[in-house]
Every structure is written in structure tokens, then in C-alpha cells.
Design a protein that fits this description.
The complex is a heterodimer of chains A (197) and B (372). Chain A contains seven helices and eight strands, in the order αβαβαββαβααββαβ. Chain A is of the alpha/beta class. Chain A starts with 6 loop residues before the first helix and ends with a strand. In chain B, strand 11, helix 9 and strand 12 form a beta-alpha-beta unit. The chains are: A alpha/beta (197), B alpha/beta (372).
Chain lengths: 197, 372
């Protein structure tokens, strides 16, 4: 779903990637983030996606793509196989959130996660008016959303604290502009660089 | 979508001896092959298509005198098709030990002046690839742009990356497995026992007796066919539909599935050789590149340098998606470039031969990426 935000999300992620790294991109969509990181950072890696159309699009984009079901975990992947395991705007589409983040930090030295912040002001206002939020960050109706987990920045940080996941860095954005003040209220997207406890 | 049209098989004789994995040395051998498209000046656009158990060198097109004899992967190979003969020079070859014209059990044994029959040595996937490499030399192909195969053909593609890592740029391993499971071997053994126990088998020298172990070969094919199809598809295609309107309360054909299996079995005995069937099932059973590495597939694949495309089919229970994933994980461990697609298709193992739109789109997209 990276296409929703275009490249700003990519640029931030690219800043955290060292040239030549091994990268795994979970929920890689059409493979454009990997293609971007290959071109900009010379990374080696794989995308994972379970949607046949995304697999086809990724192959057409010239990146390695593996059609795996993330809900089944990454059992076949070695510990520490990757420098970074990325999940760009897909964490909210996965049911087994904690096991997956733990898998990311098993197969990768660090994890990079971005997600739409359900706590954003506009979403709170929509709920206050009695309707589920629909926005640029959450562009779906409640009945057709691929998202199965709805959480805020505060929720995610609590989850990390409860599960011994170290937050190395968090960056917050509202319509692509950096947010520093009260991100849980003001940011529509959060990006985190996570490590093992 | 055009056909490659009328094609003509070719034959090449290799005078130098070949020592097989089982220890036997053949003084020389012949291979029958077909080519489609043009080899470019650099020799960099050649693609080898490897056949599975009952396939042949006749991958695409038709014969002038047999317009209904369409190549077994004609839906994939041709001008404008996913394996595009406008870009690629495609080679199909009948493997050593085969029954479509390459040296095999039906060939004359120079030592006896009679057909080899059961005296033809068991050949392996490794031997096939070694023989295919001689064909590559003959055709002036130093490095294949790609080697493509489904099922047992996929094993050959994998073996190319191990035996000749510098002579293959891409391996397309479809509906395949890194080795057979006990259940796979069990089905092969059932097929072999059917042939071996046929009174007309004559210890493999049935040619001399002017007979064919029809019943055994037929039964072998029937067993094979069950493993190629999925339960779902068999249910959809045949269900419990009766051949005639009522039950016979006898042992004739009652159900359509019985009729279908008998038909497939009967037809097979008219064109396939029982000794080749035995050899080929053994080649399947023996294939296990990890065997020399204490079962460690990651270590076995470490010497591969090719890029891989691996595909499996959701309803294939003969070589289930998990078997393809074993290959993928081992390649990931070695940092190889690999893409993997699990195609939703109801037709079981045989899906790899069908022209499912998404399957062909994915395969075509990967092939389009290959530089010539």
C-alpha cells in the first residue's frame, strides 16, 4: 500500500538503510520500495507479498518477490539473515501483530515499521461525529478495508514496551510534513526503527 | 498468439564416452532435439526446456506429416508467447534413456547387437544434465539464458545450477521439489512393480519377444495420473458420474473416472516405453542434491550462481507448495536472487502444463526480465 504515500515514506526509510545492506520488505506491494532502495542504496533483498497481483507487479518491477503468507510467520528464514526487515504501511493488515514483529527482529538486526496513526486528530473528529474515519492515511470504508488492526502511536509504543522491543527512533508525519509536537494527535503516519531488547 | 509452426526434430551423435553416475560408461550416445527461434550472434539468448516423466524433445509446434501432434508445452513457447521465440532460441531435448529417439533401452546395444532393454543403465538427473551440456556445446551455447522445467524438468534446471554454475543465468523451477518424499517414492515403486510383475515384461527384454508389458505400463500410468490431478479437480471433472446409466454390479467400468483412467493408461502404452518409465522413475527417486551434504539443502545449493524463479500450484499434492518453499528458503540462505509464486489453480500437479492466465503472466514477466 506504499503507493498511497508515494516517495516520502521511502525517503525516510532510505535514510536508515546503509548501502549494500540485506533487506526484507514484508507486504512489499508492487515492489517499488525495494526497487527504490536497490537504485538508491544498492541493497540486496526480497519482497514478500501474498497477493498474486502484487507478486506479478513486483516481478515486472525487477525485484525479488516471494509469495508467502505472513500470518504463517517466517520460520524458513534464518536468524539474522537481514540487516533491516521493513514493513511499510502494512502492519495494520496483519492479525498476529506481536509474533510478526518478533519474527522481524529474529530474521533482521533491526525492523522498520510504518503505519497509519488511528489517533490522528481527523480520525478522532470523525469518531466524535459518530463515523469511522476515512482519510488519506486510512483511505478505506470500514466494510472494505484491508486493515484488521487499528491502533495509535501511543498504543504501538505501549506494545513495544510490553514486549521488550526497543524503539531506536520514531519519526512522525502529517501529510508528509514532519511532526514534533504531540505526534499521537498530529501525525497521520508514524515510522519506527526498532531493535531487540 | 502464434505457433512456431512446422518443426523438424534433429539428431546429434556424441562419439566420446559418458560415464554415468551409476558407474556404467556408455561408449557414445545420440540425442534427439528440436529448436525454435534463432540463436543470436553472441549465443546469449538460448533457453533449454527440460521435460518431465513422459515428455519429449517436441516442446512446441507440429510436424508436417502429423499436424495434430502439438508440442507438449506449445501454450508457453512460441512467437509472442510467454517464452517468446522472437527473443529466445529455445531448445527441447529428449533425455538419455528416453523412448523418443535419444539413446535408450530401445536402442541397439553395440555389445550384443540387440536392443538394450533392461541392460540399459539407470540414468540420473545429473547424467541428463551432463548429456544436455554436450548438446549445448554442439549448438555453440556456452551459457544458457535460462533453463526451464516443470516437475522432473525443474529438477534438471536446479541440477544445471549445481553442475554447471557458470553455464546458466536463470533457473525456472516449476512444480518441483528438492527431492522426493517417501510417499512420492512409494507411488513410483507401485508403478514399477506394476511393470516388473507383468508376465510380458520378460525381465526388460520384451522387445525380443515381440510383446509390450501393456498391463503393467497401463497400471503405472493410471497410478501416475491419480497423483497428477487434485481431488477437487477429479471431483469437478468426474464426480460420481456413471459411464452408463446404471451400476453393473460387476468389475467393468461403472464410473467415468474409471473410464478416464483406463483410457489414459491404454493410450500411454501406444507411445511410451516401459523400460524408459522404470529408468525415469528411478531418476526421480535418486534426485537429492543435498544427499552429499548430509541432507543440508542450503549447503548443496551454495555453489549455484544463477537467479531463480520458483513456482508451485495450490492444489499440487505430488510436489506441494511447501516443497518449492524448501528450495526458496535454501536459496535465500545463500543470498541468491529468487522470486517465488504460488499459483492458485485447481488442476493439481498437472497445472504447470496449463495456460492459466496468471501463471503465464508471472512466468512471462520473469522471462521478459531476462537479458538476451
Amino acid at each position: 500500500m506504499t503507493e498511497i504515500f508515494g516517495r516520502f515514506d521511502f525517503d525516510v526509510i532510505a535514510r536508515w538503510i546503509v548501502p549494500g545492506e540485506r533487506v526484507l520488505d514484508l507486504g512489499c506491494g508492487d515492489g517499488s520500495l525495494l526497487k527504490f532502495l536497490k537504485a538508491e542504496k544498492g541493497i540486496r533483498g526480497y519482497g514478500v507479498d501474498n497477493d498474486p497481483h502484487n507478486v506479478l507487479a513486483s516481478i515486472r518491477n525487477g525485484v525479488n518477490v516471494l509469495q508467502f503468507d505472513l500470518e504463517k510467520g517466517l520460520a524458513g528464514v534464518d536468524d539474522d539473515a537481514f540487516d533491516h526487515v521493513i514493513m511499510s504501511l502494512s502492519l495494520q493488515t496483519v492479525r498476529h501483530t506481536v509474533p510478526l514483529v518478533q519474527e522481524m527482529l529474529r530474521v533482521g538486526h533491526e525492523a522498520v515499521v510504518s503505519f497509519p496513526n488511528f489517533g490522528h486528530r481527523s480520525h478522532r473528529e470523525a469518531i466524535a461525529k459518530g463515523r469511522m474515519p476515512v482519510s488519506e492515511a486510512l483511505p478505506y470504508q470500514w466494510f472494505n478495508s484491508p486493515n484488521v488492526r487499528f491502533f495509535t502511536i501511543a498504543d504501538f509504543e505501549a506494545l513495544c514496551a510490553d514486549n521488550g522491543i526497543v524503539v531506536h527512533e520514531g519519526l512522525f508525519f502529517d501529510e508528509g510534513r514532519a511532526v514534533t509536537e504531540d505526534p499521537n494527535l498530529n501525525a497521520d503516519v508514524a515510522l519506527y526503527r526498532l531493535g531487540r531488547g | 498468439m502464434n505457433s512456431v509452426g512446422v518443426v523438424t526434430p534433429q539428431r546429434v551423435t556424441f562419439g566420446a564416452p559418458i560415464t554415468l553416475k551409476g558407474g556404467v560408461t556408455l561408449p557414445g550416445f545420440e540425442l534427439v532435439y528440436e529448436t525454435y527461434g534463432e540463436l543470436n550472434a553472441e549465443g546469449s539468448n538460448a533457453v533449454l526446456v527440460c521435460h518431465a516423466l513422459s515428455g519429449s524433445h517436441h516442446v512446441a509446434g507440429i510436424y508436417a506429416d502429423e499436424p495434430k501432434n502439438v508440442g507438449w508445452w506449445d501454450n508457453l513457447v512460441g512467437p509472442g508467447k510467454p517464452l517468446d521465440t522472437n527473443r529466445f532460441f529455445v531448445v527441447g531435448v529428449n533425455n538419455l534413456g528416453g523412448c523418443y529417439g535419444s539413446t535408450g533401452p530401445m536402442s541397439l546395444n553395440p555389445a550384443s547387437g540387440k536392443p538394450y532393454g533392461a541392460d540399459f543403465p539407470v540414468v540420473t538427473v545429473e547424467d541428463w544434465v551432463a548429456a544436455q551440456a554436450r548438446l549445448a556445446d554442439h549448438l555453440g551455447i556456452n551459457c544458457w539464458a535460462a533453463v526451464v522445467g516443470g516437475s522432473l524438468g525443474g529438477m534438471q534446471a536446479m541440477e544445471w545450477t549445481l553442475q554447471f554454475p557458470d553455464r546458466i543465468r536463470h533457473a525456472l523451477v516449476i512444480a518441483s521439489a528438492p527431492k522426493l518424499s517417501a510417499q512420492n517414492i512409494a507411488f513410483n515403486e507401485l508403478a514399477r512393480q506394476a511393470i516388473l510383475s507383468d508376465p510380458d515384461f520378460h525381465g526388460g527384454h520384451y522387445y525380443e519377444h515381440g510383446v509390450v508389458p501393456v498391463n503393467g505400463l497401463r497400471l503405472a500410468r493410471m497410478v501416475g495420473h491419480i497423483t497428477y490431478l487434485s481431488d477437487d479437480q477429479m471431483g469437478e471433472k468426474f464426480g460420481r458420474e456413471l459411464k452408463n446409466d446404471k451400476l453393473s454390479y460387476g468389475y467393468g467400468v461403472d464410473f467415468q473416472i474409471e473410464s478416464y483412467l483406463r483410457y489414459q493408461g491404454d493410450r500411454f502404452t501406444t507411445y511410451f516405453d516401459a523400460n524408459t518409465y522404470l529408468i525415469t522413475t528411478k531418476a526421480l527417486d535418486y534426485f537429492d542434491p543435498a544427499r552429499d551434504y548430509e541432507g543440508d539443502l542450503q549447503a548443496a545449493l551454495a555453489r549455484a550462481k544463477a537467479n531463480f524463479f520458483v513456482a508451485s500450484f495450490s492444489t499440487d499434492w505430488r510436489f506441494a507448495p511447501e516443497r518449492s518453499q524448501e528450495i526458496v528458503y535454501a536459496l535465500m540462505h545463500n543470498g541468491r536472487d529468487v522470486s517465488y509464486a504460488e499459483i492458485e489453480c485447481s488442476a493439481g500437479h498437472d497445472s504447470f502444463l496449463l495456460d492459466d492466465a496468471h501463471y503465464h503472466a508471472v512466468l512471462g514477466a520473469y522471462l521478459d526480465r531476462i537479458e538476451t
